[in-house]
Amino acid sequence: MRFFGEPIEFEKQAGIGSPAWRGRADDGEALQAFAVAVHRNGGRLAALWGEDRRKGGEGFRLHVAFGLDMGHAWLGLDLPAAHPAYPDLAGIFPAANRMQRATRDLVGIATDGGDQRPWLRHGAWPADWFPLRHDAGGGRDFTNRPSDYDFVQVGGEGAHEIPVGPIHAGIIEPGHFRFSVIGERLLRLEQRLGYQHKGVEKLFIGMNPADGARLVGRISGDSTCAYAWAYASAVEAACGISPPPRGLLLRALMLERERVANHLGDLGALGNDAALAFGFSQFMRLKEDWLRLNGKIFGHRFMMDRIVPGGTALDLEAPALAAIVEQGDAVGREVKELKKIYDEHAGLQDRFLTTGTIDADLARELSLSGVAARATGLILDARVHRQGYTPPAPWAMLGVRPATDERGDVAARAAVRFAEIFESLRLLRELAVGLPDSELRVEVPPVPGGSGLGVIEGWRGEVLVGVAFDDDGKLARVHPHDPSWQAWPALEHAVMKDIVPDFPLINKSFNLSYSGADL
Amino acid sequence: MIPMLKRILRTGIVSEPPPAALAAEQREVARLGEEILRILGRALTIRQVDAGSCNGCELEIHALNNPYTNLEGYGIKFVASPRHADMLLVTGPVTKNMEHALKVAWDCTPDPKLVVAVGDCGSCGGVFGESYASCGAVEKVIPVDVRVPGCPPTPVALLQGILAAVRR
């Protein structure tokens, strides 16, 4: 199969997961031409990562995943071991910038131009050492030298900088924000991330698939189900197996419970950041009820390690399913009431409306996915039918209704969360009452040399995992990709017309992951 | 305004004098709670530092502030600066990229200070361990008084850890 008349031949990935086609670009020019065609046709840059294949006598491989209307196009570009360089894609897809820099820091394959500042490498290891190369060794003996970073400077009379972080004022992950301001007005925000980089991708190398599942569930704790499922889906595609129906639906049930838990917390925190402590208390109470039921029926408040390659690691009995339905009804009633209070609260709406705005064109340009993209009006949700796209099982039969809002501001991102809670509650009821009888899990046969791609619509956005096995059936390379890669730059744009005191609210309305993108 | 007041009245006070679930643990927490109030006179301030966690521990630390656990009811408050803090509540593993910032935060915390290492990662490095990018457990970087294992530890376990540190 070919896309957009480009010469690259694609083949559909096996299995019942999210639709993906894989192809190989002959050279950098072909990759660039394909990227241009994807961009022209309204597609996204979904992920970009590198792989050292020199062990098998090859060179390096650049992986680029594009989000198209009908699914994902997963493109490989082989690069020579001696001179692994490829064309800079950031001029086509701005989202490529940080991914390319991270790929250079970790694998040592670089673009032949563009932004060459390090991204994940701060000073813990030297510039000529690359952790994901198979001959890199452990790299534990380097002296940690905190480094400077070349921020873009804003000049002019009255312009000054406010540096914030890496340790922020709240209970939140670390990262550095450099604000350029005049008075209280924000002229520019530049983020420097990577503080959460803990070498996750290197840890995957040589692991067996089961250990990989445990690790992938700890990349971003708030999205453990989304990551575990995306990883399982990639492993299953590589092995040519499918999870049994009951296991599949249980996964969906856990994913939707994860979505509701996070949306409840975010709506509470949004109230809090706009000085409505009432909203915080009410939503945090509901979230705690939600997590307690998780703890009771899943044995873990965040459902870690319950989704595994081949299916799920646990079953739910009838009383647990009844409790899910009952809780869903109760929470639905309360959230409806709270939505009315939020909608009618003048002080809250005054803070929410027209604050932190991005429009659909910018969202598309930045390859944004998830809540933030849907809050600009884009119907982008891996669970939802759209023109040319049929969602994978079990979403197709559930008929998921997308939640969108065209305002693109904090209010829109709150509104999308409200709508998604109601839709998830509907899905949870359908899933809980219609759970089919079957096995939970199938065996995962070792597949030497296999590879696969998994894509799941997490609560924040598109979670993508690429998996490759070595000749012994161990993991050769796992690349987990968080939607925050694309959304962090969108936040830089969203704050530009606003004032410093609005930043916490705007930031919370995106609620992005540091750990997920720092790896 | 009226719907809000109604909602507040209907919700009532949900704060649980010691968290639910484990009776023995509850009594222990309550006893420690009384002790801490006696020792500190209702003023323990905590600076939380995420030195590299997956954010799972932070979710449970957030839960300490929900109306059920209501940490402020025990006189314990999260503060924005280590200079205002009696205790650092640190999640890990400590990444190499956060090593320096964590040391600075520790230096800025006035003596006498307490450090509680949170989670399996903060306590012993967890699934991430020590590597080119990770220092591992919090105690590899700053002195630790109490460890609270768990992945992530529940709010009850966190509360116990905080109170245990104060008892020392």
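Helices of chain B lie at 2-11, 23-40, 56-63, 96-108, 119-124, 155-167.
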